[in-house]
Design goal:
- By secondary structure, the chain is of the alpha/beta class.
- 43% of the residues lie in helices and 12% in strands.
- β10, α15 and β11 form a beta-alpha-beta unit.
- α15 packs across α16.
- Bound molecules: flavin mononucleotide.
- The site of flavin mononucleotide has 22 residues, from α3 and α16.
Length: 388
């Protein structure tokens, strides 16, 4: 039977009879302000901030606001099924955890807490190359949970192959290649505080535990951290690659490959031509190109161009169950949730991530039913109306 995520609502109300309230807010619009209270300014700015004037972040939210769900009544939507099949794998709900680097800046348990919470709920994680823990440590925390690996593509083929082999050995099934962050954007919140986690040696656990990377160093990262950090920063930023290089990844990864950061239908077509299995329509949560197209505005044309040939996933601006419904109605198979659960991690480690994920899934389940839909197959353009 399909999971009934909406039961988190009754659980909260019933616990209220004993005087308990949720550990922190269930309001997705209040999470950021609430996280500001528990985080130092550096880490908070790193998570909440974006590129330039923040125009892309605002555009992401505005785009969701321009679409409205049109509920249908007496639709027999009591029992709902949120299952989705992505890259041939059945998920309990169409929501994955977006790759988020340097999680230990918001909570010491970082990626380990996130992996454990996601596995418990049957949701896939996408482990960032900028993880604070090694591939093997996160795999252990994830147990039999579904896990994908996100590659920031190093400018060194031996290191790339070594990292891919470790990911494969550790049970990561799909490879997500992030294309939009080959160098960091102008990010005023971080610049004003001179705060960049990598420079401080945070989010470097994967290269620092990699034999091919370590072999390139005169001294180990334990002996000379600054030189190792510098070497890594030069290796994972600063060089833009080209479409023909994807053949190299195909050669060294035998599972599905997903390209993250696609915003133009022609790039989506190039991904298909390159034999990719999926794409993530994403502007990196407004952290890379200021003044960029909202990811949701880019979605319909991309889904129309390639949606029958690759799995089209979506992120950037998803906050509520309604947002998930809108993205799926506009052509996504599933969405990646980003900042909200990072704020949950900041509030309470594994329990905090769990609370946010359960809240979003409950909201999704209830909103799906209340709008007269029983499954994702019921959703489409007919579900929505543009803001008058
Ligand atoms: C703090 C932070 C760190 C991130 N780190 C990565 C990363 O390491 N790799 C990656 O592909 N995307 C990274 N992203 C982008 C997310 O995967 C995702 O595209 C973005 O969070 C979506 O926007 P939203 O959170 O506003 O919905 C990061 C985002 C944030 C907020």
């Amino acid at each position: 039977m399909a999971a009934q995520f909406g039961t988190y609502q009754s659980e909260i109300y019933l616990q209220g009879l004993a005087g308990a309230v949720p550990p922190f807010t269930t309001d997705p619009t209040a999470l950021e302000a609430s996280a500001r209270e528990v985080l130092e300014p550096g880490p908070f700015g790193y998570v909440a901030g974006g590129a330039g004037a923040g125009a892309t972040m605002r555009a992401n939210r505005d785009a969701f606001d321009r679409w409205r769900i049109v509920p249908r009544m007496l639709a027999d939507a009591t029992d709902r099924d949120l299952r989705a099949t992505v890259l041939g794998t059945e998920l309990a709900a169409p929501v994955l955890l977006a790759p988020i680097g340097v999680q230990s800046i918001v909570h010491e348990d970082g990626e380990l807490a996130t992996a454990a919470a996601a596995a418990e709920l049957g949701m896939p994680i996408v482990l960032s190359t900028a993880s604070s823990y090694s591939i093997e440590e996160v795999a252990e925390a994830s147990g039999d949970g579904e896990r994908w690996y996100q590659l920031y593509w190093p400018n060194d083929d031996d290191v790339t192959v070594s990292i891919l082999e470790r990911a494969k050995r550790s049970g990561f099934t799909a490879l997500v290649v992030t294309l939009d962050t080959w160098t960091l954007a102008w990010r005023p919140q971080d610049l004003d505080q001179s705060y960049l986690p990598f420079i401080r040696g945070v989010g470097t656990a994967i290269p620092f535990s990699d034999p091919a990377f370590r072999a390139l160093l005169a001294q180990s990262p334990e002996e000379d951290r600054n030189s190792a950090v510098l070497r890594w920063v030069q290796m994972f930023t600063g060089v833009d690659k080209s479409w023909d290089r994807l053949a190299f990844l195909r050669e060294h990864w035998d599972g599905p490959i997903v390209l993250k950061g696609v915003l133009h239908p022609d790039d989506a077509r190039l991904a298909v031509d390159a034999g990719m299995d999926g794409i993530v329509v994403s502007n990196h949560g407004g952290r890379q190109v200021d003044g960029a197209v909202a990811a949701l505005d880019a979605l319909p044309a991309i889904a129309e161009a390639v949606g029958d040939r690759v799995d089209v996933l979506f992120d950037s601006g998803v906050r509520t169950g309604a947002d998930v419904i809108k993205a799926i109605s506009l052509g996504a198979k599933a969405v990646l949730l980003g900042r909200p659960w990072v704020y949950g991690l900041a509030h309470g480690g594994r329990e905090g991530v769990r609370h946010v994920l359960r809240s979003v899934l409950a909201d999704l389940d209830l909103t799906l039913g209340l709008s007269g839909n029983r499954s994702l197959a019921d959703l489409g353009r007919h579900t929505l109306m543009e803001k008058p």
